[in-house]
Inverse folding.
């Protein structure tokens, strides 16, 4: 066997191992944030599922965020134009300015099945209806 074939075989094997460990691509869920609503405002998730929430602030006047206790339980990878923080009641949030977007990637934690609320904690946005829920279902 020539050196070229050995190197090619090693490269193919390395690629196969890395591709097998990558797992399925995350499910992308686009979430529009406008004056005083999330669309969708009910987001079904499965425990252990890898997701990307694409937060898009389509409001021409107001910044918004998505705050949820679910974010406290997950390791988040956030990309784009955003700020992160914690509300006064302890919910982690991702803040997106007017016309900007952010991607929030995480694996849905093994929290009890049921609903976990999310809201916009900017000003009185939640009181004006900017709320929603993640509906957590058991892993398949």
């Amino acid at each position: 066997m020539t050196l070229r074939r050995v190197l090619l075989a090693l490269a193919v094997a390395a690629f196969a191992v890395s591709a097998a460990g990558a797992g399925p691509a995350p499910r992308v869920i686009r979430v529009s944030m406008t004056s005083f609503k999330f669309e969708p405002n009910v987001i079904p998730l499965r425990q252990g599922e890898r997701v990307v929430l694409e937060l898009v602030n389509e409001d021409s006047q107001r910044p918004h965020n998505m705050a949820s206790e679910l974010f406290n339980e997950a390791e988040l990878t956030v990309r784009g134009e955003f700020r992160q923080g914690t509300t006064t009641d302890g919910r982690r949030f991702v803040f997106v300015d007017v016309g900007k977007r952010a991607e929030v990637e995480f694996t849905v934690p093994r929290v009890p099945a049921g609903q976990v609320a999310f809201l916009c904690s900017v000003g009185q946005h939640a009181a004006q209806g900017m709320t929603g829920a993640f509906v957590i279902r058991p892993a398949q």
